[in-house]
Amino acid sequence: MKTANIRNFAIIAHIDHGKSTLADRIMEQTETVSERELSAQLLDSMEVEQAHGVTVKSRSVRNFYHGDDGQEYEYNLIDTPGHVDFSYEVSKSLAASDGAILLVDATQGVQAQTIANLRLAVKHNLTIIPVINKIDSLSADVAATEKQIRALRPEFEDCDILKISAKTGKNVHDVLEAIYQKIPAPTGDPKAPLKALVFDSQYDPYQGIIAEVRMIDGQLTTQQKLKLMSQGETFNAQAVGIFTPNMKPVEKLETGEVGYLVTGLKDVAAVQVGETLTDAANPTAQAFPNFKPAQSMVYAGLYPKDDTSYEALKQAISKLALNDSAFHYTPEQSEALDAGFRCGFLGIFHLQIIQERLRDEYHVEVLTTAPNATYHVYLKSPDPKQEYLTITNPAKFPDFSKIDYVTESYVKAVITTPESYLGAVMKLCDQHFGEMVDLDNQQDLVTLTYKLPVSEIAYNFFNSLKSITHGYATLDTEFLDYELVDVVKIQIQINYAAVDALDIIVPRQNADKIAHKLVEKLKYTVPRRLYPMPVQAMVENKSIARVDVPPLRKNAAVNGEKRSISKKQQLLRRQSLNKRQAVKSDIKLPQSVFDAVLNLNEDD
């Protein structure tokens, strides 16, 4: 295919605006898939995507379209997620594209993630085609939606805005025509040395790492000796191909095309997103600037559950990290849960998706500790070689007597919401120690910029935001800096044994309230035994809250009657033994115990 007839584009939209449905119609009308193969949300092939009805992982597919001008065009569609937790996937897809279709639901209008994804597209200097979807819906307000879109960008004021129904296919042909008419063809030199961008990757147990590439210059063939410029790794190409959307081998990939490369490499750290691929014998002169790595917003511990071995979890996590470049992990050791991993996520929904993918794709069951933010702890007698300690695991938080002061990670949170919910959103941000930075009106939408501590948005902030705005607001975060905070660590003891996996770090002024709520929840989630077990919340070596987990059966020693002296003595002996054996507690905690910590704010 001539480079002039190639178009690389993405579809960007707010969640549930019909992006995956439009992708289905494009594949259907270009006859990329047969009627027998076609199914709803064909590109959302993962179980978690089908279960939640959202796109989690970006995917690409090659379509061939015969235009009304009589020419054949190669359309490389690079699918993108719509949920705020997967904006990094959107950014990767846009880096490999030359244009984007901005899809807006006529029944809901421009929403927050519409604007956030539009900003990403503008940042990548892409040509943007605005499209209104669901025009056949009874609740559609096409005129109002068109007015909102025209107000987004100066270039939208006089442009043609396409109006379609992705569900029925109405006017989708107009979108196909607009793609080759408005989106520019790739630029590149077919005779120059090979230069390709690795914008995604996945792991296959038989073929090793499969890199998804966007060709910039030259061509890529099977058995060609290749080099990864930042890593310096060299290897022979095992196979090259395209997505149709299934993997289809081809003889070569040429300038401007999008496809895949089977590297044969088994080291999951060998191929990084944003890597520059070139010919080992005749390399390109200049590599791409490295992708800005995804900034983890929350951290949580993942530990093997039941019969899952540590090695099985380690292999599953390493392969998953290759498939999801926004997911980070490091090994850690817990006294209560043994060996596991401290993992970084973009948000709570991202954490949930990782849990489900480990279970569904790798058959690994995990225990997940409560998420937390990152802290910098400055000690009274610091190590000359280390200015501060970086704490992502509350269990590693130093003793209070050694701490001089603590700083916490803060983010700039950009919240776009309909004007009618402004008061409720501002109240929510104030409750989470937010500091307003800016407020901007754009027709019926208001954009609020707040400075927020990460610990305050790590739990259910986004869910609360969706609840009070009925799903019409979205959150876009960007890391700012670390600021001074007054926090303490709540340590949990169960039956006098410290359970480090339940440790949490909270603002000092909230410690008493949170401690009492936590022990009350643990009273009903900690597995019961034949005798009562105390659950205590300790702050700075003092117990500030305590409950007793009731025994499995009535105990005569604690029923308020004085006649059972022997039972009373037996209970006292048991408590004494428990205290002596606390350091080697054998209590097995189910996931519901850790969920109690995660859901502390649900009743607020």
UniProtKB/TrEMBL annotation:
**Where is coiled-coil annotated?**
none
Matching entries from Gene3D superfamilies are given as: 3.30.70.240, Elongation factor 4, C-terminal domain, Elongation Factor G (Translational Gtpase), domain 3, P-loop containing nucleotide triphosphate hydrolases, Translation factors
Main localisation = membrane
Q: Which UniProt keywords apply?
A: Cell membrane, Elongation factor, GTP-binding, Hydrolase, Membrane, Nucleotide-binding, Protein biosynthesis
An example Gene Ontology molecular-function term? GTP binding
Subcellular localization, as worded in the UniProt entry? Cell membrane
Q: Which reaction does it catalyse?
A: GTP + H2O = GDP + phosphate + H(+)
Biological process terms in GO annotation: positive regulation of translation
Amino-acid positions noted as binding GTP in the UniProt annotation, renumbered to this chain? D16, H17, G18, K19, S20, T21, N133, K134, I135, D136
Q: How does it sit in the membrane?
A: Peripheral membrane protein
User: Ranges for the Tr-type G domain?
Assistant: 4-187
Q: What is its EC number?
A: 3.6.5.n1
Q: What does this protein do?
A: Required for accurate and efficient protein synthesis under certain stress conditions. May act as a fidelity factor of the translation reaction, by catalyzing a one-codon backward translocation of tRNAs on improperly translocated ribosomes. Back-translocation proceeds from a post-translocation (POST) complex to a pre-translocation (PRE) complex, thus giving elongation factor G a second chance to translocate the tRNAs correctly. Binds to ribosomes in a GTP-dependent manner.
Which protein family is named in the record?
A: Belongs to the TRAFAC class translation factor GTPase superfamily. Classic translation factor GTPase family. LepA subfamily.
What's the protein here called?
Elongation factor 4
The species this protein belongs to is: Lactobacillus apis
Q: Name the lineage.
A: Bacteria, Bacillati, Bacillota, Bacilli, Lactobacillales
Q: Give the encoding gene's name.
A: lepA
